[in-house]
C-alpha cells in the first residue's frame, strides 16, 4: 500500500497550487480520502475530506479557497489551493481510511507561502 503526494513548493501569498496524491495497493474508490496538514509547532489539522458519494467537507480556515476532488479511475485525490496565505504553510499529508481496514498515510509534501 502506498500514497504518494506531489505538487508542493514555494508560492507567493495570493498564489495557487494543486496537490496530488496517488494511491496504490488498495481499492481507492472505497476509501474516504483526507488532506491533513501540520504547520511548524502546531498539531495535525484535517483540511479537506472526500467522502464516498461525492460529499466533501472543509475546515473553516480553507473554505472557499481550497477544493478537494478525486479521480477513482486514476486512484488520485487532488487539493486545489487558491488565495494562499502565509498561515497555509505546512506539510500536507494524504490519508486513506475505510471501515475495517488499516489507515494509510503519505509521506507529505511541503507547501511554503512566502514573499
Which features characterize this protein?
115 residues; mainly beta; seven-stranded mixed β-sheet; 0% helix; 51% strand
Topology:
Elements: E1 2-6, E2 9-11, E3 17-24, E4 32-38, E5 45-50, E6 56-58, E7 66-71, E8 76-81, E9 90-97, E10 104-105, E11 109-113
Describe the structure.
There is one protein chain. The chain has strands at 2-6, 9-11, 17-24, 32-38, 45-50, 56-58, 66-71, 76-81, 90-97, 104-105, 109-113. It is an all-beta fold and 115 residues long. A hairpin with a 4-residue loop joins strand 7 (66-71) and strand 8 (76-81).
Summed up, what is this model?
The protein contains no helices and eleven strands.
* Biggest sheet features: 7 strands, mixed
Cα distance spanning the termini: 37 Å
H/I helix tally: 0
Overall morphology: globular
Describe the oligomeric state of these chains in a short phrase.
Answer: single chain
Low-confidence stretches: none
Q: What percentage of the residues does DSSP assign to strands (E)?
A: over 45%
Pattern of helices and strands: EEEEEEEEEEE
Helix proportion of residues, in percent?
A: under 10%
Number of extended strands: 11
Q: What's the mean pLDDT score?
A: 97
Overall SS class = mainly beta
Rg on CA atoms, Å: 13 Å
Amino acid at each position: 500500500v502506498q500514497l504518494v503526494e506531489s505538487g508542493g513548493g514555494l508560492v507567493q501569498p495570493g498564489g495557487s497550487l494543486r496537490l496530488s496524491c496517488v494511491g496504490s495497493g488498495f481499492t481507492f474508490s472505497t476509501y474516504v480520502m483526507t488532506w491533513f496538514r501540520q504547520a511548524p509547532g502546531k498539531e495535525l489539522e484535517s483540511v479537506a475530506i472526500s467522502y464516498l458519494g461525492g460529499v466533501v467537507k472543509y475546515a473553516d480556515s480553507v473554505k472557499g479557497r481550497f477544493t478537494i476532488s478525486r479521480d477513482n479511475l486514476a486512484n488520485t485525490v487532488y487539493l486545489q489551493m487558491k488565495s494562499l496565505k502565509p498561515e497555509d504553510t505546512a506539510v500536507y499529508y494524504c490519508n486513506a481510511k475505510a471501515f475495517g481496514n488499516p489507515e494509510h498515510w503519505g509521506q507529505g509534501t511541503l507547501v511554503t507561502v512566502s514573499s
